[in-house]
Amino acid sequence: MAMNKKWTVLALASMLTIMSACSSNNGANNGNEAGGNKEAATNANAGGNNAAAPADTAEKPDPFGKYPETVEFTTVRPIGNNPQFPDGQSYEENDYNTFMQDQLNVKPKFVWTAPQDGFAYKKKLELAINGNDIPDIFEITGTPTDIQATLKRLVDADMIEDLTSAYEDYASPLVKDSFANQGNQVLDLFKIDGKQYAMPQQTSLENFNFVWIRDDWRKKLNLPEPKTMDDVLAIGKAFKEKDPFGGGKTVPFAMQMESEPAGLFGPGFLFDQFEAYPRLFYKDASSNIAYGGIQPGIKDALKIMSQMYKDGLLEKDFALKDTGKLQELLASGRAGIVGQAWWGVWYPLFMTLQNVPDADWKPYAIPAKTNGKINFGTTLPVGDVIVVKKGFEHPELPVKWLNVYNENRKGEFFLKLSQETFKDANDKAPILWGLTIAPGDEILNSAKQIVGAVKGEIDAATLPFTNKDAFNNIKQYIDELQDQPQAPSKNMLQWQNTRSWYDAMGGASGYELNVVYSAFDGQTPTMEKKLTALNDLQMKAYHSIIMKSTDIDADFDKFVSDWKAQGGDQIITEITEALANK
Amino acid sequence: MVRNVTPGAKAADIALLVLLALAAFTCIFPIVHNLAISFSMPAKAEGGFVTVYPRGFTVAAYTKLFEDTTFFQTFFVSVKRVALTTFLSFFISLLMAYPLSRTNREFKLRNAYMWLLVFVMMFNGGLIPFYLIVKQLGLMNSFWVLVLPMIINVYNVILIVNYFRTIPKELDECASMDGAGPWYKVFRIYMPLAMPVLATTTLFLLVTVWNEFMLGMIFMRSIEHAPLQTYMQQLVVRIDPTLLKSVDDVKRMASVSDKTLGAAKIFVSMFPIMAMYPFLQRYFISGITLGSVKE
Amino acid sequence: MLRKWSEQLHFNLMLLPGMLLVLVFSVWPMGGIILAFKHFIPTKGIWGSGWVGWDNYALLFETPVAKQVFTNTVVIALMKMAFGFFIPIAFALMLNELRVRWFKRTVQTVVYLPHFLSWVLIAGILRDLFAVDGIFNQLLSKYFGVEPIMFLGEHFWFRTIIVSSDIWKEFGFGTIIYLAALTAINPALYEAAEMDGASRMEKLRYITLPGIAATIVLVGTLSLQNVLNAGFDQIFNLYNALVYDSSDIIDTYVYRAGLEEGHFEIATAIGLMKSAISFVLIVISYFLASRFANYRIF
Question: Which segments constitute the ABC transmembrane type-1 domain (chain B) (predicted)?
Answer without folding.
Answer: 75-280
